[in-house]
């Protein structure tokens, strides 16, 4: 890539950042997601090397990305829309890689996984490489500063953008942290403010430049990856290696941001200090929010740990101490997320989404414990195997618990025993929501009918009778090949209704 091409790439990335801000900062996900994904795909196609054509087997990747992005504007289910959005982003990244001429579909599963890691790496730091080629950012290796300062500057270059993301997540989750950051820094971390919007545009432009650099330059290390499950080639390793000093700087900066948030949690969330004076809201309002953002922060911290562990040149005691400190602080953030979720559930009851959030929190807790053990033992290369086992165990546990039955049981208990409801919380039974729960919830509702108040019992009985007709008349359930234990139990329970 020459200087002119690099500057053109940066200009397009900045335009994509501005477009993303206009489309996504404020409006709910919908048609804006389709427009953003289409714009990224178009930019990647235009910036691909001249004369390069994607592999024919990869033609489905951009089409799938567009279709999934379109579903965000079609489906009204927030959870499905979120899954569609995440999948659309994955396929968008894969399509951009294919635009560079790298075959994706033909590769083995392990090679595709490594290709994904390399793409994430390029998206994170590719903007720096492009900026150097464009002569708009200095090459730290060419500065006249003493050599001992070079690792420090590189570490800060990595750490500051990540720390700002953590700060934005914590500010969104916790109003006291947001106010404290405003007092400390002199500006508010709020995507609705001018400074926050500039930060948002720059962050989106940074990621866009990194991803588009993949379309323009490809991923050299991927050329050595296997194209088939049985073929052997030289192992693919990350193209970037991080020195001990840089890694320590990154960890210390992030530890400071996460540590500040943890200190506020200990004081206000767990310690019970006056949130009305600190944030202008009651403790219940303060605590019943933010668990989604905190789960995202935990995932980001895990990603930082994995990245450093797989790219660091030499582990030192100081590095290990800073790494373990981040894991410990992240564990407190996860406890905060779980505590907030519990308070919210006590007030408003359970839903399947909240059940899955709790399951995610427990799975992440197991993952953090595993990462801590592997970091101490310097065996982080076993993390993928361990996380796979944890994921399988979590999935089996969820099946054994039966989320729909669990949610129905907890919500019925709240109606029968109002003492389970937090002060000011919702005390009624949402029959319309129970009516959309899967068949596993039906035996619970049938068994609970005698103990429900007359009004609640009448509502539940009406929806159960409708479900009985559905199970009896739907031809898809009549075929013996469609036998399902949960459905049969539901039919047996419904047969006892008057």
Summarize the structure.
70% of the residues lie in helices and 0% in strands.
Distinctive features:
mainly alpha; globular; 0% strand
Describe the protein's topology.
Blueprint: H1 3-24, H2 31-47, H3 60-72, H4 78-99, H5 109-133, H6 150-173, H7 175-185, H8 194-217, H9 244-270, H10 275-279, H11 283-287, H12 291-311, H13 317-348, H14 352-377, H15 383-401, H16 403-416, H17 431-434, H18 442-448, H19 454-473, H20 485-494
Question: What would you note in describing this structure?
Answer:
This protein has 498 residues and is an all-alpha fold. The protein is 70% helix and 0% strand. The protein is built from 20 helices and no strands. About 6% of the residues have low confidence.
How big is the Rg? Answer: 26 Å
- The sequence of SSEs as H and E is HHHHHHHHHHHHHHHHHHHH
Report how far the terminal alpha carbons are from each other: 76 Å
Overall pLDDT: 78
Low-confidence stretches: 137-143, 186-192, 225-238
Question: What is the structural class?
Answer: mainly alpha
Helix count equals 20
Approximate strand percentage: under 5%
Tell me the number of strands.
0
Anisotropy-based shape: globular
Largest sheet: none
In percent, how helical is the residue content?
55-70%
């Amino acid at each position: 890539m020459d200087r002119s091409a690099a500057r053109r790439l940066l200009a397009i990335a900045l335009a994509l950042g501005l477009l993303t801000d206009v489309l996504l900062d404020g409006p709910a996900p919908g048609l804006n997601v389709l427009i953003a994904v289409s714009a990224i795909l178009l930019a990647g196609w235009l910036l691909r090397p001249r004369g390069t054509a994607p592999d024919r087997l990869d033609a489905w990747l951009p089409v799938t990305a567009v279709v999934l992005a379109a579903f965000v504007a079609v489906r009204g289910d927030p959870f499905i829309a979120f899954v569609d959005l995440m999948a659309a982003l994955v396929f968008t990244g894969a399509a951009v890689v294919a635009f560079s001429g790298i075959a994706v579909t033909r590769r083995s599963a392990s090679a595709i996984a490594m290709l994904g890691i390399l793409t994430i790496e390029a998206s994170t730091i590719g903007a720096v490489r492009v900026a150097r080629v464009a002569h708009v950012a200095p090459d730290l290796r060419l500065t006249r500063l003493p050599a001992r300062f070079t690792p420090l500057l590189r570490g800060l270059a990595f750490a500051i953008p990540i720390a700002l993301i953590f700060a934005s997540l914590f500010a969104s989750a916790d109003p006291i942290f947001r106010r404290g950051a405003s007092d400390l820094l002199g500006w508010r971390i709020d995507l609705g403010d001018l400074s926050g919007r500039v930060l948002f545009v720059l962050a989106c432009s940074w990621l866009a430049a990194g991803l588009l650099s993949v379309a323009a330059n490809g991923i050299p290390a991927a050329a050595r990856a296997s194209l088939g499950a049985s073929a052997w080639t030289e192992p693919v390793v990350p193209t970037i290696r991080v020195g001990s000093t840089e890694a320590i700087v990154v960890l210390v900066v992030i530890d400071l941001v996460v540590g500040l948030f943890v200190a506020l949690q200990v004081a206000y969330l767990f310690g019970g200090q006056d949130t009305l004076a600190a944030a202008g809201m009651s403790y219940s309002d303060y605590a019943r929010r933010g668990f989604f953002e905190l789960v995202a922060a935990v995932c980001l911290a895990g990603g930082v740990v994995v990245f450093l562990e797989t790219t660091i040149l030499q582990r030192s005691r100081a590095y290990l101490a800073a790494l373990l400190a981040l894991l410990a602080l992240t564990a407190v953030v996860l406890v905060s997320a779980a505590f907030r979720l519990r308070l919210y559930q006590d007030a408003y009851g359970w839903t399947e989404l909240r059940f899955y959030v709790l399951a995610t929190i427990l799975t992440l807790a197991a993952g953090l414990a595993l990462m801590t053990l592997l970091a101490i033992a310097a065996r982080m290369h076993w993390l993928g195997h361990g996380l796979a086992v944890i994921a399988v165990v979590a999935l089996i546990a969820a099946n054994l618990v039966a989320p729909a039955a669990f949610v129905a049981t907890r919500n019925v208990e709240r109606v029968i025993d109002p003492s389970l409801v937090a002060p000011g919380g919702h005390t009624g039974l949402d029959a319309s929501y129970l009516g959309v729960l899967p068949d596993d919830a039906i035996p619970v509702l049938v068994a609970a009918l005698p103990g429900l108040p007359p009004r609640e019992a009448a509502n539940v009985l009406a929806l159960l009778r409708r479900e009985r007709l559905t199970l009896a008349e739907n031809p898809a359930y009549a075929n013996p090949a469609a036998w399902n234990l949960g459905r049969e139990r539901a039919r047996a329970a419904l047969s006892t209704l008057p």
